[in-house]
Amino acid sequence: MASSSNSYNSPCAACKFLRRKCMPGCIFAPYFPPEEPHKFANVHKIFGASNVTKLLNELLPHQREDAVNSLAYEAEARVRDPVYGCVGAISYLQRQVHRLQKELDAANADLAHYGLSTSAGGTPGNVVDLVFQPQPLQSQQPPPLNPVYRLSGANPVMNQLPRGTGGSYGTFLPWNNGHDQQGGNM
């Protein structure tokens, strides 16, 4: 938790941003210190002060700090990427993990191939033992998604887009009908 009281009687970032007097029981004061005005500005821009107040009042006091940190992270991501926000960052990281897994698999295949070919030639064959076998994660991880929301009547439907292989951007975009930026098919 940040400071539980206003330091030097300075209003918290929220009250300062909203241009109001910061009262001793201000719900924002412990989570939006005056040293971090951008934190509240982003949260207010994305979620609104009234909604954040309602959310914090509904939570137990020990849950509020995590909620504010989550709101601040989501707001920062939404300010940086107004379309995808956090989902864009998560998708980017999932694609990076997938790419690195492919590289690791290729390196393991090369090691295995090298180990098998050298063991037949009389050189040490224990190179195969060096092949890295990644351990499965303890928790079930969902497969990487590229979510696209389409409105079908009043119900939003989430679809998974196929991954592109090539073109200048290398991704299938629903608005370009499967053609990359160069005009070729993906």
From TrEMBL:
<comment type="similarity">
    <text>Belongs to the LOB domain-containing protein family.</text>
</comment>
<dbReference type="InterPro" id="IPR004883">
    <property type="entry name" value="LOB"/>
</dbReference>
<dbReference type="Pfam" id="PF03195">
    <property type="entry name" value="LOB"/>
</dbReference>
<feature type="domain" description="LOB">
    <location>
        <begin position="10"/>
        <end position="111"/>
    </location>
</feature>
<protein>
    <submittedName>
        <fullName>Protein LATERAL ORGAN BOUNDARIES</fullName>
    </submittedName>
</protein>
